[in-house]
């Protein structure tokens, strides 16, 4: 399982999300799932549908419990995690997941994407 986790501002467009994904996925295996915070999932659904990928909504409590490579003060204050994108990708990919790409920021700074890979037992 290769999961693209997203964090984004409320005004992010599908183009912002696609740009963040393209930056994060460069040179990596194809993404099999998308993930984000539960309350943000409806806004990510159009991209999931366009890419024909499953969308996983991660509960806030799980996001806060995942250690992230990035330690954004703004993200920590707003969401209780250093990176929503990284935490969502790791949480959705499973307990033994590893980060393949830390968060990458779209050129318009409206969306971030990180990629995690689930590891088999």
UniProtKB/TrEMBL annotation:
Pfam families: CbiG_C. Residues 2-116 form the CobE/GbiG C-terminal domain. One of its GO terms (biological process) is cobalamin biosynthetic process. This is Cobalamin biosynthesis protein. InterPro entries: CobE/GbiG_C, CobE/GbiG_C_sf. It comes from Novosphingobium olei.
